[in-house]
Structure prediction request, 857 residues.
Amino acid sequence: MTVLSARGLCKHFDGVVAADQVTIEVAAGERVGLIGSNGAGKTTFVNMITGYLKPDQGRIELQGRDITPLGPRQIERLGVARSFQIPQLFPELSVLDNMLAADACAQGGLSAWQPARDAARRARAEAGLDRFSLREHAARRVAELAGGVRKLLDIAVALTRAPSVLLLDEPTSGVSVEEKFPVMETVMGALDRARTTVLFVEHDMEIVQRYASRVVAFYSGRVLADGAPAAVLADAEVRRHVTGAEA
Amino acid sequence: MNTALTILADGVAYASWLFIVALGLTLVFGVLKILNVAHGSFYAVGAYAAATFVAWFATWGFAPWLSLIALLLGSVAVAALLAPLTERGLLRVFYGRDEVLLVLVTYALFLVLEDLMKLVWGVNPYFVTAPYGLFGNVQIGGQSYVGYDLALVAVAITCGLGVWWGLNRTRAGKVVLAVIHSAEIAASMGVNVGRVYTFAFMFGIFLAALGGALTAPMISVQPGVSVAVVIVSFAVVIIGGLGSIEGAAIGALIVGMARSLAVHTWPPAELFSIYAAMAVVLIFRPEGLFQRVKARRI
Amino acid sequence: MKKTAAMGLAVLAALLAGGLLAPKWLLFLVTMSAANGLVSLGIVLMMRGGVVSFGQGLVFAAGGYAAALVSNKLGVSDALLLAAAGGGAAVLLAAPFAPLLARYRGIFFAMLTLALSMVLYGVLMKSESLGGSDGFNMRRPTLLGFSIPDAWSGYALYALVVTIAVLLSTAARVYFDSARGLVALAIRENELRVEYLGASVRRVMALDFVLAAFLGGVGGALAVMALGHIEPQFSYWTTSGEFVFVSILAGHHSVAAVFAASLVLELVRSFSSAYFPNTWQLALGLFLLIVIRFLPKGLGSLFNRFSRQAAP
Prediction:
């Protein structure tokens, strides 16, 4: 069942083609790796899907509903969440408060009197932290955390409202080599249990091979290849323009 | 016709000293990225210092025209003594912090200087009238103008052109421009940014004090003169655009003319017109009339 | 929330009882600090969202003039109605600007709020019908239908102001602890993420601006009632500056700290006038520098180190 569909997306900035007839259909539960060198159009694609950018042409549908004209707020409400390459958190607040704040934001109809930290919300927030084994950090300020922990928290925050679709922007960038696989194991394990559809932008091909059920390769704003990981990574064009490994 | 000329003359006269002060304020913002609430306080200190120097010169029996030198000396003394102390001793501690935080720091400085001035010079007004009559009256087109006012306009124009020339046509000026665009990049190219900051601040304060010194003969120098200057000079630099020399000039003219027009045609508008202009600019063109070209940040 | 309400009631009881024993000068001082504290509380409310208003004098004056005019021209004398009129007038004045100001940050927010307050100042200074630069007097209000006898005027006004202050403070605390309150703190830290999580930054900021206006307006009305006089100075930038001083001194974590800081301001002003003339601004300035440098989260952060409750 198609959960997310992007058809014929085009976008250019001052003559630079960031997206050229990008068409991708994602089925529920898929784990799609988005690869491509810098400037290939991966982040532009993510920005369009999450409503931060409007495509010049094309149509995006979420579970059959047209979301092309919507902004980040409305798209989040419909069940699409994203994490960020550089973790976007609330530095002076505690880890738990970050989760609670995310919970409050996602509630809609912000209450002016209902406590943000009541028992029910705390329980939800702590459960969210448990998914990534972050409970031990609950009282610490985000500004004091290490990079890998912040990355995990960034994703945990994105998962606050159990989205149906999650976009991860370079989940292992900035994470030390030893931590990369443990981080991805934790994240993918949690997402598997929740049966979330995931699209993740990645530069590390080992991570891609290990965790993607499908790979889409970008180059100059176009989709170069789209299919099973082994096939795409072996593709000659992909090797030339993306992975750099000559055939 | 007479009224129109009077309005014009009044407006330009007001704009002259205001431009000198605002030029200093906008320069300090342009280089140090600090919106200095205490700028008006340095204006007042300049006025008090001028009063002191003029009185000294008189007691020492110097010729009346030397009182002009006294005015100038007053401003230089203020800049030389207070500016480095302020910049190095106080502002430097907060560099890199949030811009609003620095406004609060300069507001604290304003509070401190208000009382320090009272402690040094007392609360009674000073009158520095001697220099005002030095240039006599000048007849232009049937109207009589005070020579001093015209001289003030000349000084304002000189300051403006001088600063422009200094920034754009000298080597040192190019260095300052580099720091204005990006202190980080300038530093990585070997520029001693700290020295540029100190010098720019000193020069900005000198202009504030000069504005105060030159205006002293026209007002009664007493506690509280700084307060109105602070807010009016803010209006000027916001209207003209923070960091812009042309902006300071046009802003000063707009404020001067608006005030003059109101005073002569519709007095109730005298005060609010200036701030309404400030609000309108902030609403429709927040960066001011002359936007500083911002360098691309890496 | 119940805990907050209980605390509020306890504080109110203590204040009302203590007021019976306090000397007249102290009663007046606390009355003024409570009224002014409400205005600063409005600034703190906005500070939690990341913006500092340098023009709170606008709503302070609006509330004051509204209360005074309603009393003088419309004959309404009940203090509670006048306080409500003050708050209402301030809200009406501020509301049209709320969506606009919700888009401003940093220096531009500060300058625009400053400009608006100075526009009102300029208008008031030249309004002969409103007393121009001198302002005008306001007669003593009545309380719940009773006129206040001279002997009790100090305590009656004190009780009125302190009660309203505690009520509004309790409401503010509940608001700070609510979902909206937490989202405001999040906005201060990272607006982008807040939008990506589904909340509207602009709507929160706009509402906060209006709520702050209400607090400022009520504060202004109460101040006028306590002083018996209103003037354009209420909207001048130096008045707004004092409210900002109190807000910075207090920090945005504790509501009680705002009133403590407001009291500090009044105490410094009074004592310095009496013993060391021409030094109160010097003292304030140094205070402010010390707080900015060494206690950036304000006095409130000290409170929290000793209390059981979690920080924000």
Q: What stands out?
A: Chain B has one domain: 2-284. The beta strands of chain B are 126-127, 137-140, 143-146, 220-221. Residues 293-298 of chain B have pLDDT under 50 and may be disordered. The interface with chain C takes residues 35, 90, 93-94, 98-101, 103-105, 107-116, 118-119, 123, 227, 230-231, 234-235, 238, 267-276, 278-279, 282-283, 286 of chain B (CB under 8 Å).
